[in-house]
Each structure stands twice: as C-alpha cells, then as structure tokens.
Amino acid sequence: MKKLKRSARLVELTQYLLNRPHTLIPLTTFADRYGAAKSSISEDLAIIKEVFEDEGMGDLQTFAGATGGVRFIPKMTKKQALLFAEDLCAQLEQRDRILPGGYLYMSDLLGEPSLMNEAGKIFATAFAEKEIDCVMTVETKGIPLAYATGAQLNLPVVLVRRDHQVTEGSAVSINYVSGSHKSIHTMSLSRRALKEKSRVLIVDDFMKAGGTIQGMVDLLAEFNAEVAGVGVLVESGAVETEERLLHDYVSLAKLTAVDFKSKQILVSPGNYFES
Amino acid sequence: MKKLKRSARLVELTQYLLNRPHTLIPLTTFADRYGAAKSSISEDLAIIKEVFEDEGMGDLQTFAGATGGVRFIPKMTKKQALLFAEDLCAQLEQRDRILPGGYLYMSDLLGEPSLMNEAGKIFATAFAEKEIDCVMTVETKGIPLAYATGAQLNLPVVLVRRDHQVTEGSAVSINYVSGSHKSIHTMSLSRRALKEKSRVLIVDDFMKAGGTIQGMVDLLAEFNAEVAGVGVLVESGAVETEERLLHDYVSLAKLTAVDFKSKQILVSPGNYFES
C-alpha cells in the first residue's frame, strides 16, 4: 500500500480506468491501492467522470453498495465519429487507390493502429448497450478492426479461418458464396473457439453484398450462437437492394462510386450517421 | 479554449498522453488547450512523470526550448514483464492444448486483446531505443501482436500475405522453406506497402527454426529494407542449434517440451528474461 496525494491519485486512477474498459472495479480496490478513504476516492472519481464526459471520452458508471464500484465505458461522440468518418472518406477518395478490377487499396489505412483504434471506439459506442460475449471476424483484413473493437469492449476475439489449420484442432467448416463472381469459398472455425449460445458481434473491413458476413452468420448457427450485431468499416453502395444479403449492420463509410477510367472514387459517411 | 482546474487538467493530460505514445507534443498545445501558463503545465507534467515512473508505466521525456515539448514512451518493467511471461507459461502448459502432431492450441490466448496489448508493451519496451519505421508480420496469428506493438510504438503495421491478393495491387512474392517437413511456401507483399530503406521490426506469434521469419527477412531485402529487430511471443526450444536459421531475436516464452503421450507441456520464460 502506498499513500498518494490527490494529484497523483487522479493520474493513477485515470490510467487505471483507461486500461480497464467495461470492467467493474470495486472502490475498495482503489482505497487499498492508495491508502485513501472511500470518500476521497469517490471525490476523485467525480472529477474524472466530469472530464471524461466533457471530453466525450465515455461514461464513468458508479454503483453504490457492497458490490458497488466503478466502470469505464469508452465512447466517442457522434460529432467526433463523423469527423473521423469524413477524414476516412477523404483518404479513401485518393485516386491512386483504384486497382485493376475496380478494387480499392485500403491496406495502408488498415495498417494504422491509431486509425483502427478510433474505428474500434466507434463500434464500441454503437454496440455499448448490447449484450455481447465476443467479437468475430474472418481473416485477414478485418482482424485489426476486430481486436480494436474487442479491446474497447473488453471482449475476446474469435477468428474464422479460410482453411482448416493444424493449429486449430477440430473445426467446423462451411461453404459460402461471395464476390461479384458469386464464387464458392470455405470458412472454418475451431470447435473450441466459440462456446454454445454465445452472443457474437461480427466485424469486418469491407462489405459488398454481404456474402462473407452471411457466411459467418451461418457458421454461428452451427455453434448455436447468435449475432449480437454487425459492424463494417466500409460498405459498397454499388449493390442492388435485392442483391444485398444483409440489412441490419452498422457501416462507418459507404463507397458510392469507383470509376476506373476517370480514376474517380466517391465515398460518404456510412449508415451509422444516418440515424 | 477551456479553463480547467489543475485536478481536471491532470486527468485530461494523462489521457491525452496515454493515447499518443511516442509522439512529441509541444507544451503550447496544452497551454492553448487548457488556457493555462506553460509553467503550470510543466508542474502538471512533473506530477504525471513521477506517477508514470513509480508505476513503471514508462518515461515522460520533456524537451526544453522553442521546439520543446513532451513525449510519452510506454514501458513495462522487467519485473512486471516476467509476471506476465510466467502467467503465459502457466496457461500454455495446460495439457488440453496439445493437438495431433504435437501442435499447441494458442488461439484462445491470441484472441485476448488485453493479453496481446501487454505483450505489445513488452516488445515496445524491448525495442524502444531502436530506430524503427514500421512493424511487419505475416498473416494470420501474429497480426494482433503486431498491431499491439505498433500501437505502443506509434508505428504502422505492414502485413505480408500468403498469396497475392487482388486488393493489394502489384506485389513482390518470394518462396521460403518452413515447418518440420521443410515444405516450400510463398509469401507476398504489396509494392506500395513498404518504402525503400525502411527499418522494420518483425513480430510473430510462434517461431521454431525461424523459416517464416527468415522469409520475411528475405522479402525485406527485395525492398532494400532492413531488419530493426525480431520479436516472437513463443519460441520452440525443441530445435537443434544448427537447424536454427535466426539467432538475433526476442522471445517472451520458450516451449521446451511437448509430450503427446503423457500430455506434458513445458514452457519457460523466453530469452528476453535471460539478459
């Protein structure tokens, strides 16, 4: 036990809470940790709560009673999220991203941990009230986004593989249809990776008709697990409504047009900002 | 501009710094942000620096002069790192991890964002003094570790693919030999993913002889880039020294024995703790 002045306690408490999102911490933990009275800790937390709320960083939930404590729920305001989305759109519209076949090069953006963490915070905000047991994605490009979201929600990440790997043990495999060519692919999930009846948040970097995500939904059924939500960084708006396999999802950006000839790309904020 | 009391400023400053590791922030930024005199900000930072150092959370570097400012270098003490490694070893020794072929099931551990972030902090500490431009890994299981490390070092992550993807544009592919069967594999990196002469930190989840990592080293040569360091979460000690392709690396855990019959697994802290 170490005795700390309020000023030092505030720094300590702030970093402690930021490192433990969505985790209930009993006040006694802090009282013991800092050799301070619970009343002083409560005053500290009131100060922190006010700053977090003024900054739009999230909620500091306090629970009274013996089982009481404090829990930090990281959030990003719609305003901050929109600024993020508009910046993302501007970067996605850089003409040199267009690849043969009208594909868009995004790996540089997906390679920025800070950018992924911001997106993860937005998904954590969008799904903060949902009851979720884990975050799921299929390899490869959605992985950083899934981990960023899982970190903010304090949830494990379940990774679906394209092929069955020797390092995964027994696995359940399914076939799914995806891509403009409606080609058949396989995805596989280790039997021990997911508990029955889990409530799963599906996250991916890009969605067109939604075949890949529908594949994950079908895979969840094999585990008697259910979808708690779907979040995609970028959705393609160039899809006929009847083609779209999935309708209930959150997107942060929407790719509305890619013209290979004129090298024109149009991206607007996703459906998260429509409501 | 908002005027904040010292108590609120300390909370604000702490979260601001924690969210921007390895980033030089001019004092004027804070002075303007909080409508406070630089001298007051300096006093705040002194308090934060002391707490960070007492907690072994890292260094708060302050630079005087017009170009001066402050930079947070996240670190973990060897003692804290060893506690992490010992816990990791204990979990890896759970007998039900053994898979046919003597492989070890690790996906549950690799699926814990908080665990990956701790490991990332250790690598960020181990390579804090190195001059590094980006973190590199090859899909799939090393990705969360690479991002956790990149986030702590404020560096982008470069992702090597097993096959050439349409979404990557033109790419450089190489063949490499890996696994106990010395089988030939291919790995591929988008031309635009890595700048010439980059200094690269290679990160992966598991290393046996080091064939896969040697493949990444060979790939770097194709880009006239160089290796700044190599970090692996778990290394296999069951390798003859002459078999080992790689000798300069940091490991956090060492798998010394896996007995499929007796379901015995032996794991000890890695070479990071030998020095």
UniProtKB/TrEMBL annotation, chains A, B:
InterPro entries registered for this protein in UniProt: PRTase-like (IPR029057), PRTase_dom (IPR000836), Pur/Pyrimidine_PRTase (IPR050118), PuR_N (IPR015265), PurR_Bsub (IPR010078), WH-like_DNA-bd_sf (IPR036388), WH_DNA-bd_sf (IPR036390)
GO process terms (BP): negative regulation of DNA-templated transcription; negative regulation of purine nucleobase metabolic process
Molecular function, one GO term: DNA binding
Location of the Phosphoribosyltransferase domain: 119-245
UniProt entry keywords in alphabetical sequence: DNA-binding, Transcription, Transcription regulation
Domain Bacterial purine repressor N-terminal positions: 5-74
CDD domains per the UniProt record, alphabetical: PRTases_typeI
Similarity remark: Belongs to the purine/pyrimidine phosphoribosyltransferase family. PurR subfamily.
Cross-referenced NCBIfam families: purR_Bsub
PANTHER family linked to this entry: HYPOXANTHINE/GUANINE PHOSPHORIBOSYLTRANSFERASE, PUR OPERON REPRESSOR
Quaternary structure note: Homodimer.
Name the UniProt record assigns to this protein: Pur operon repressor
Species in which this protein is naturally found: Paenibacillus antarcticus
